[in-house]
Amino acid sequence: MLFIGAVIFLLVRPFQRSQPSTDQLKNIRRQLLRIVKKEIDHRLATSLHNLVKLDLYMEDQRQRVGTPQFELIPEAPSTNTEPSFQAVNRILHTKGNKPLLDLKLTQKIIAVFDRPDIQGKFMILGDPGSGKTTELLQLAQDLVTCVEDDERHPVPVLLELSSWNGESLDQWEASQLKRLYNLSEATTQQWLENNQILLLLDGLDELGLAKQRPCIQTINQFLDMNRTSELVVCCHQEDYKAGQTALTELNGAVYLEALKKDQIRQYFEAFNRLSLWENVRGSQALRELAKKPFFLFMLMVAYQGNPIRTQQDLFDAYAVKHRFIQRTGGRYRFVHDLLRKHFAAMPLD
User: Fold this and answer.
1) Distance between CA 245 and CA 214 in Å, rounded?
2) Which pLDDT score, from 0 to 100, does residue 2 have?
């Protein structure tokens, strides 16, 4: 937000014009693209995941989204030759007419976005610390490149759903773009109607279940009314499942899997931290923690050459590195609470 505030003055005058001309709209759009690009590059450069050079496994979870399609399949006819009135029973089956996504280890998330059967409408699921926001940022970065190569592509805009408060999605987006970039609501509405804005929505789970359900319904209504619009949503898998309300207008979903043992070991080897790997391998709680890229990097940050075998060891080492959190603008102050929750659920062995 501070970064956006530092550049917002560039946009005040053109964005406040109520009815800009076509040329002015093009100029405003180019300015927005430049600012969005700088913001995304800045966030990726300062992300905790920036130094975690790991390829993530993704699992196809298409069943979490979309409207189930059903077909009626007749039962096998009876072999009974005696004359009788025979009821025709039919069995309801879910149609499996879409192949699973071919997800490769090194595949970029934009490859999923670009699939003809996905059409830019899908969901990124994962556990806390699994890298959902980073994947969304990397997708945004690639989409910005697409716009730079061809201005017919929509400008990707990453917004936090935690600020949604019951409005229609287009009204909420217009208010957010006015707040963040001083873009007039009339201009936003015009761009939405012409599919010149691509929504990348993060933090659906941060709404809480009571607001998550109506928000999903609002997203479904928006996509139903704007069928050519592309849209991507991020959410914690368990929160999404708990809401029991599906994003029916999306065409696919991927789940970011936990890191595997070999990936974790190779990561420690690459940074010459085999002694830390021995600590992690000897603790069930630390092994589980290291499966998430975010926490794997936190272990690396906290490690100072001394063994980390207990909850207190990790908290003490982490406290020494508190300046890291200060340097990132406080974005990761929730780590301590997550660590406490993790260790409370899984005692150290």
Assistant:
1) 9
2) 41
